Amino acid sequence: MRKSLLISVLLLACATWLQAQAYPQSSATQAAGGGTTTVQGCLSGAAGSYTLTADSGTTYALTGNTSELKDHVGHEVAITGKASAASASSSSSAASTTGAAAGGAQTLEVASMKHVATSCKSAAK
Fold it and tell me: Which tens digits make up the pLDDT trace of 74-88?
């Protein structure tokens, strides 16, 4: 009995350690000096209109070099580029500013993309 309990605890500890190694601790990291950001999350959309929902829940409208994204819709990816708050239109600037301040609407100019997994982590929750 004691031996099986010890083995179970050891397996649980190993599984926890492997899980911690599999995922980065933050979904957006700032590169030193270049002003670029890497955001990991779930890619969605279609040609010309892609969005990335970060693991933290922040949604980014993707601009720039989006040509290689179409084969990765619905996948977990890491996008590197320059992040900025979405521009507010004159008719709804107050609402857009409030949304951007709440962490919602941001844009990410794609410089590069790295495939992480064929399914999104958020779908497994």
Answer: 999 999 999 887 554
Read off the pLDDT of residues 79-112 as tens digits, 9 standing for 90 and up.
999 988 755 443 333 333 333 334 456 899 999 9
Question: What is the count of structural domains for the chain?
Answer: 1
In a domain, 49, yes or no: yes
Q: One-letter amino acid identity for 89?
A: S
What domain range includes position 68? 26-124
DSSP H helical segments within the chain, as ranges? 2-22, 93-101, 121-124
- Answer yes or no: are the C-beta atoms of 106 and 85 closer than 8 Å: yes
Helix (H) or strand (E) holding 8: helix 2-22
